[in-house]
């Protein structure tokens, strides 16, 4: 049975039952290649808040409207982050694929109120200690080393060989791990597997290894602190314990690595395929910064974020939201909300997008600035070293990863004049 909204009531049949009415599965080929069309359809048929089904037919709400996403993220007293509130836990199997995203963990991601302010405050002050010019120089060195590994061949697959590797090394450098170290190399690989597992990978084992290595890093920095994020978190007067620091460092590293990697690659795709940029980049008439900002509006790396959980029964976008309901933040849909930007490129000139979320749980300042340093340096350094870079396939042959959460290419093959190293 479902209420008048089409969303199942609390006495609804088990998830997956046809009685879930008009709820739309968040899956399928539309999400892989043209999610914007699906968002337009959902908005037209359901309005700013749409009833959806997650993996296994688990019901949730997808918040599509820009004002509605801003409202949810600005009202923690109504829509909170502790997933233990969810009214669907009895239907969640132990091997549910989204469990890593919603299963409660003692990290800053799931804290609320004063505890969240305490944990987020430690991260903010630790990140504020990063010198952005020093980070840019380090990223230039990392980029140059990565480029030299393939520049002599005249061909490269930039997603795996460049875009994913650079932010992982950059954020680990910020945390106090040396860039040119076998331990760092293994950690970079385990981060990739745990966040974006491929065929034959074991993400659970990789995540366990990440946790173990970060715990060793914390213990090392307790003995020998340095000018890095980990040491500043350890020495902060809030007095976080080792396990708290490990959990929060993993959150920082994960948030910096995959979204920034997709931001880099999506920007390179735009520069190489859109005639507004492809013709003008070499001549310097269109800045890399403009392309980076446009990607955040129109191809944001984090399409959807799960989520928030209703603290009590409430109304949102004309929908009756029940206590314990899960809300998925439709960041990509909100960024292209026609009520905000009726023209396709109207938002590209400012930074009021929701790509770093909004409210108390948004990416802590100055994380977006540091991500911008890494992404901008990655793109500019690549174009400087390989100025005749072109796609090795037709633009329509590029494919997107089958994810409703992250917007990223499966690969970005390119060709260029081989360079002498």
TrEMBL record:
Entry's Gene Ontology molecular function annotations: heme binding; iron ion binding; monooxygenase activity; oxidoreductase activity, acting on paired donors, with incorporation or reduction of molecular oxygen
Pfam families (alphabetical): p450
Location of the region described as Disordered in the Swiss-Prot/TrEMBL record: 1-21
Family: Belongs to the cytochrome P450 family.
PANTHER family: CYTOCHROME P450 YJIB-RELATED, P450, PUTATIVE (EUROFUNG)-RELATED
Protein name in the entry: Cytochrome
């Amino acid at each position: 049975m479902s209420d008048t909204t089409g969303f199942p009531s609390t006495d609804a049949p088990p998830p997956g039952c046809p009685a879930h009415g008009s709820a739309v599965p968040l899956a399928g080929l539309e999400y892989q290649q043209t999610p914007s069309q699906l968002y337009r359809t959902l908005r037209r048929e359901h309005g700013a808040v749409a009833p959806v089904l997650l993996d296994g037919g688990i019901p949730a709400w997808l918040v599509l409207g820009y004002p509605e996403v801003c409202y949810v993220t600005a009202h923690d007293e109504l829509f909170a982050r502790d997933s233990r509130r969810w009214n669907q836990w009895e239907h969640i199997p132990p091997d549910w694929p989204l469990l890593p995203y919603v299963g409660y963990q003692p990290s800053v991601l799931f804290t609320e109120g004063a505890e969240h302010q305490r944990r987020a405050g430690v991260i903010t002050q630790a990140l504020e200690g990063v010198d952005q010019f020093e980070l840019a120089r380090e990223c230039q060195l990392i980029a140059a080393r990565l480029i030299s590994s393939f520049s002599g061949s005249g061909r490269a697959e930039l997603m795996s060989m460049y875009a994913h590797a650079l932010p992982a090394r950059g954020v680990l450098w910020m945390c106090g791990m040396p860039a040119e170290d076998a331990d760092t190399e293994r950690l970079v690989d385990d981060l990739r597997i745990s966040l974006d597992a491929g065929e034959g990978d074991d993400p659970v084992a990789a995540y366990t290894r990440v946790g173990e290595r970060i715990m060793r890093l914390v213990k090392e920095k307790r003995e020998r602190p340095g000018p890095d994020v980990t040491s500043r978190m350890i020495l902060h007067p809030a007095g976080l314990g080792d396990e708290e620091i490990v959990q929060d460092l993993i959150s920082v590293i994960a948030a910096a690595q995959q979204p920034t990697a997709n931001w880099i690659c999506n920007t390179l795709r735009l520069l190489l395929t859109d005639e507004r940029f492809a013709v003008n980049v070499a001549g310097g008439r269109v800045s890399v910064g403009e392309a980076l900002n446009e990607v955040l509006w129109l191809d944001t790396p984090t399409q959807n974020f799960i989520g928030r959980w209703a603290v009590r029964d409430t109304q949102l976008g004309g929908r009756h939201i029940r206590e314990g309901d899960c809300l998925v933040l439709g960041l990509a849909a909100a960024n292209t909300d026609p009520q905000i930007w009726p023209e396709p490129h109207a938002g590209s000139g400012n930074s009021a997008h929701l790509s770093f979320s909004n409210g108390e749980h948004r990416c802590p300042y100055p994380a977006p600035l540091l991500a911008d340093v890494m992404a901008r340096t990655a793109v500019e350094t690549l174009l400087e070293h390989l100025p005749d870079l072109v796609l090795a396939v037709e633009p329509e042959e590029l494919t997107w990863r089958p994810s409703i959460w992250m917007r990223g290419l499966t690969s970005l093959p390119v060709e260029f004049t081989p360079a002498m190293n």
